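Human: I'm a chemist; would you kindly supply sequence and structure tokens for a protein?

Assistant:
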Amino acid sequence: MARGSARLAGVPRVPGSGVPGSRVGGRSAQGPRLGPEARVPAQAGSRLPGAHPRAPGAWLPSGARPRPASLAGVGVAGEGAESPGSCLVPEARPSPAVAPARVAESPDARRPLPAAWQHPFLNVFRHFRVDEWKRSAKQGDVAVVTDKTLKGAVYRIRGSVSAANYIQLPKSSTQSLGLTGRYLYVLFRPLPSKHFVIHLDVSSKDNQVIRVSFSNLFKEFKSTATWLQFPLVLEARTPQRDLVGLAPSGARWTCLQLDLQDVLLVYLNRCYGHLKSIRLCASLLVRNLYTSDLCFEPAISGAQWAKLPVTPMPREMAFPVPKGESWHDRYIHVRFPSESLKVPSKPIEKSCSPPEAVLLGPGPQPLPCLVASSKPVRFSVSPVVQTPSPTAQSGRAPLAPRPFPEVSLSQERSDASNADGPGFHSLEPWAQVEASDVHTAAAGTHVLTHESAEVPVARTGSCEGFLPDPVLRLKGVIGFGGHGTRQALWTPDGAAVVYPCHAVIVVLLVDTGEQRFFLGHTDKVSALALDGSSSLLASAQARAPSVMRLWDFQTGRCLCLFRSPMHVVCSLSFSDSGALLCGVGKDHHGRTMVVAWGTGQVGLGGEVVVLAKAHTDFDVQAFRVTFFDETRMASCGQGSVRLWRLRGGALRSCPVDLGEHHALQFTDLAFKQARDGCPEPSAAMLLVCSRSGHILEIDCQRMVVRHARRLLPTRTPGGPHPQKQTFSSGKRAPTTWRGWQGHRCTDASLPPGPGIAISSLSVSPAMCAVGSEDGFLRLWPLDFSSVLLEAEHEGPVSSVCVSPDGLRVLSATSSGHLGFLDTLSRVYHMLARSHTAPVLALAMEQRRGQLATVSQDRTVRIWDLATLQQLYDFTSSEEAPCAVTFHPTRPTFFCGFSSGAVRSFSLEAAEVLVEHTCHRGAVTSLTATPDGRLLFSSCSQGSLAQYSCADPQWHVLRVAADMVCPDAPASPSALAVSRDGRLLAFVGPSRCTVTVMGSASLDELLRVDIGTLDLASSRLDSAMAVCFGPAALGHLLVSTSSNRVVVLDAVSGRIIRELPGVHPEPCPSLTLSEDARFLLIAAGRTIKVWDYATQASPGPQVYIGHSEPVQAVAFSPDQQQVLSAGDAVFLWDVLAATESDQSFPGAPPACKTGLGAGPLEDAASRASELPRQQVPKPSQASPPRLGVCARPPEGGDGARDTRNSGAPRTTYLASCKAFTPARVSCSPHSAKGTCLPPASGGWLRLKAVVGYSGNGRANMVWRPDTGFFAYTCGRLVVVEDLHSGAQQHWSGHSAEISTLALSHSAQVLASASGRSSTTAHCQIRVWDVSGGLCQHLIFPHSTTVLALAFSPDDRLLVTLGDHDGRTLALWGTATYDLVSSTRLPEPVHGVAFNPWDAGELTCVGQGTVTFWLLQLRGADISLQVRREPVPEAVGAGELTSLCYGAPPLLYCGTSSGQVCVWDTRAGRCFLSWEADDGGIGLLLFSGSRLVSGSSTGRLCLWAVGAVSELRCKGSGARSSSVFMEHELVLDGAVVSASFDDSVDMGVVGTTAGTLWFVSWAEGTSTRLISGHRSKVNEVVFSPGESHCATCSEDGSVRVWALASMELVIQFQVLNQSCLCLAWSPPCCGRPEQQRLAAGYGDGSLRIFSISRTAMELKMHPHPVALTSVAFSTDGQTVLSGDKDGLVAVSHPRTGTTFRVLSDHQGAPISTICVTCKECEDLGVEGTDLWLAASGDQRVSVWASDWLRNRCELVDWLSFPMPATTETQGHLPPSLAAFCPWDGALLMYVGPGVYKEVIIYNLCQKQVVEKIPLPFFAMSLSLSPGTHLLAVGFAECMLRLVDCAMGTAQDFAGHDNAVHLCRFTPSARLLFTAARNEILVWEVPGR
């Protein structure tokens, strides 16, 4: 809980402080402002009222006020400071590569002038008396002239040589100006058609002098250790490559505002000291120079800035603006660097991260340049408040944070422009921008742009392309094999399978189904091999001459590309170390050839070396390198088994004596290790199999056959297996289980018989897997005594492979199936299915997300697009399917066959519905209208058929002969229907014509002859495929045989444009996206993507991967994906979101992106992993008006669970709609067996609550006279003593509390909560304030209670239900019996009693004000209702809040920001005024002052004393008598407030979960209560237990004083989630070395120093989000785990990562736990014992000594998981921890068969105890001092288990899943967290 030192009640006010008795100075009126990462000093200081925060004691000029802080906490505490010592952490920035040379200065130069007199600004020319030229110097043509624009004297500096004509301050270089102001304002105008230069000498705090120069002479940015050169260009009228040049003829006066502090920090990582000297060189006019610590806004006048959070330019500095004209029409304002690039307030001393000024990926880097334009603009708010540009939609990898000026565009959409918005992340080629004072980076240039300035948004300066590069990224592949189906293997960790899919190598994670790809081959992959450490992957492609590639398996990068000496490579085999690679193939004469390569140096940058080559006349079908000796190999083939050896640079082989088996055809081999585990060659055996069913066991030492066995079939009872159906459904299981008695393996000496052909075998230490051509996979023991298990496949098994752990057996079939058998569960899992021949056509269905494909293998298959798994397959042996399409609305698809039949199939029944045979030839194309009413088909004989599909029994309407070109090649794009369904186009009746018909009537509307002479072939051009564009365009696209795409007008037939040279071969398929942005073309074996909107297109992007011609391309119905079909089906993600609502005219040229020419998947894979460059800031002048449901913030993943976010994801209408409780899905049994936190006598006692529920409404009360202060946090009412900070916790609610009400006597508090899963009604609890006891419990409503209010005499309590309940109820407070209840006709947003009349009650809602009069008749109360409509003058918004004023006035707030005043006696509204841009959610009145709070976070104080007099004027009243006294902007929508009677001070609550103390007298707001804004991910403790630290998804790391829970330090990283945290262990007893290690969502790890309150180091050990981090016991090593299962070991001082463990790869690391190694019985050496638990229910235990670089695996635990163990839609985590009271024990919880805690003994290697749990655990913590175990559950419950006594006790207190629990080192406290709430429990007496 971040609490200032404020104590509110009964404490005298201290002058100069913001809070009575506070130790912290007053805060800015603007409250906190989160800027980019910057550091805040730990000390705090107060300031005088009116003094600028940077200069204590300095006074502002008359009429000025301080500029609100946009950097939270920069400067002394009191201006935006969070709390004493809070920190906003800077990003680590690179230090200069070369040590800068020292520049000698005189003692005077090193001593800057006192800073106090320089505030608020300093007139440099006046102070140094430039006109006297005593303290300044001039050279050349320098004169004083009168400027007509400014109407005053200015200095003119002109001359042909800039260096010879200048003004210099001071006169001598040995002197120093000593100006300490952060900002330098240069008021100048360049002379037309001339160059100018401005030199600044700036001194850093370490007395290093740096020259900073700006000029239009510079063509590019240059930087050294002591000189920065920035190009400054004005009036960039047109986009061009080189914006540098002479000043334009119409150059205007410019205010150049330079932030010297940021310039030094960004570019040189130095801390700004003072400005030493200035030189202004020809040619320019200069009016003056000013320095200041204030950021002035030159374009805002005094009348305009009253409501804007900016500081206007002082009159002395301002340019004159004639009345009625705009400042921006006459002048230019350039601010450098832009505010979108914020920097830390101190340089980073250490940085081990790479320079963050580069693009991620290859490509040139943009250079900084300032460009100014002076077009007039329309701008509604101050440009100081930047609005963030939209982020990229994953169109390309965003830029890393760069130490260059950055982009911040303010854009109004143009009808002719794309709607994605400008900025670095913009995906649109051009943007029409209207902006003022905004800084834009375009093509590496900083642009000051104005209305109509067209800015090319790109990343390089060369205009080559328009689309994001790449625009497609391969997401999934449907297919397996290609050249063969024998190449499938496990990774060494058993988590993934590697296999080829034609030219693509696929790595498939078997548990998640996620695919990873290796792209680069241009032909089918014929061989694969993976080394034993998953480091190197070797692959060869089939086409001669064979090309081979070596890949880095972890990164997917191709390390080496080389040509094999063999013509064709058939097999590859790696040695276990990866140093040797052997391959077998054929040379160009067809002879068998064996080659050995040395690959040991490839990973280190070396080359592949051929070690030996050998030719042999023997057939080789399989070749393996032995596991025991890298120089030995074995091969088998037709009639031979040979053993090989590499020695002396030669490969030699010798045959094995096969005896009677010498004629067998051997197919595969595998090595079998001896039972004693001896790795010697003499102990190894070789198993080979043959097509005759033989399995020979060969002694490798004696080279003889030791055993020979043969697999023979045995007919099972019941006869042979039934024949398969010729037309079948793919829903059948992939395997059929058989009893093992069906086959036998006999001794080969028995009489011969027809054996079962064995194609593959694989051996593990316990069994042998055999795959045979009868479709069976059989598992045998190593003695082949009896088959253990067998599975039948749908085709011959071509390959088997046992996983390294021996628990899974991978099998592949020649029919294109790939799967594995889980030997423990005996379940077969299908991984991939594939067509066995090229795919001819495809179709997609939107509702079910399904894909249909037809292939030359005579099958039709239906796939699930989400999982890429096959759902159905339909097979026909008599006819081949040719075309397919889905019905747009029904679960039906249509298929055309080679026989001419067209059939419809039901997806629900998996059967044929209707068949039509109206065609005589093969069906060539099928297409349906978008509404599904009509279907069209064409055939190879030229006929065209039209069908009516209005009902399931569809029928033929028309058949027209000789319509479609009969000799045209079959193509899925031969027919096309327009997107409005009105037109039908096809190629015909000849190949040179394209015909357009009416789809309903088949009347010919247009016939276009596209036949032109093709000069290359001397033939007429012919049409190949047709495609319609969007209906709004009216385009018809035709691909031709002459490599063109012709764009026709679909109505007139005229040629609109042509794309020549599309591809050397004809294109069979093309399609255009719905927004007409992307044109896809199937171009041979590639896919080409064109920017269709660009008229002068520079060329397409080309995507490889297919090994055969692509037959069809198509966009998915949602336009977010692309499918391509040929040899396989590829699914591509579109990385630039298309805009369906944009206008379609072509855009002007743009510039190509700058990702370079690296692998496409590499360039795009990081698109969603990096943070946005721009920092989202709340708009202070014109906030967005959101609906009731707001989408998640940008940059976020959009899929975050709202239960775990600190700020509610529901935006209230005017911030006052019904309370929305956090969505908790608790089990009905969640309350069973739980107890409330006991007051005494229990195991736990609640001590403190950290947080405030910003999700409620009016859920905070404060009475200044009594000091009573209460607020809600989840299910608890927290009553806090503001003097001592002590808390009371009133519990009992079963759901989150929505609102509070305090009686006028302050003796009774009422609290209301929402409905829980265990109660049918909401609860209202009535508490005795003095005793804290619940006196009454009532259940008034079935829905959430929106508001509570006591009558003025406290005799009645009114309760208001939410918008669903609409119930108003009155309760008598004597007994709290229901007095009256009524159902409201419309939703009501607020209710209030008249404080002057207890018999009057008012409600406000949709369009009406309802007045209720209460009449007492005995014991009964009757209600009289009067409803008054809201007048039109108030607006169309709803009334959202109300409060009574002086009698008889009623103030009401509206959702549109209006405040209206009602006369309650007359029942009319007589006055209204606009109080805010957002909805008014809160109104409070006292005396003559009114407080309003809005959804924009504004809190305003209004003087309304004159309103009573205006009542007599009626509708003629004007709001000019109402004026705003004060205004504050808080960090969220205002939801609750309490003020004293004079409205001088009060407490305000916001949706951000913050409680603010507000003092209107001093205009300050100070945080009282503040927890994390979003989910708390970790709590750690200092070794001495004096402090604790928490991290959250809001990116903050907060350090708290454990005794008082006061916030001490805060480190903030914007746009990142902090996911894990660790506190360093005690190091030599030196507290100054205490550090925090924090892991973030971008894969970075930051080290924070506690003593220096600064970030020491930032490193990037992981490419993905970190999930766990821990220090070694000596604190010299950091272990970190990520969501991909990698564990990195790094040095926290140097930032180097020296080891990466991938044993858990594929599943996220959930826990890393480190302890001292105490048990000596583990058999391994090491000082530390640590474990890692991953999400796949595996735990690895390691012993390490990092100083010696030792790490050994101690144990590996795998726990089974049932099929469904989800808790609230999430899989429970796998958690493990060492037992602190017994070093040999390990405790584990996770998803399993049973809900339990498993205790495992590391010495005994077995489970020794199990503790049952009521639910699956979400969190786990073990008490270091006692035998206590804390477990948190998703059912909002905490269980404490005494492991010694075997007893347990449950506690309830959270309103959400208890996802975190941590004991302190002393075991005296227990911290638990649910979402962003933290509860601190005492553990008394244990």
Summary: The longest helix spans residues 260-268. The helical segments are 107-110, 124-127, 260-268, 327-330, 1160-1165, 1507-1510. The chain has a mean pLDDT of 76. The first strand starts at residue 121 and ends at 123.
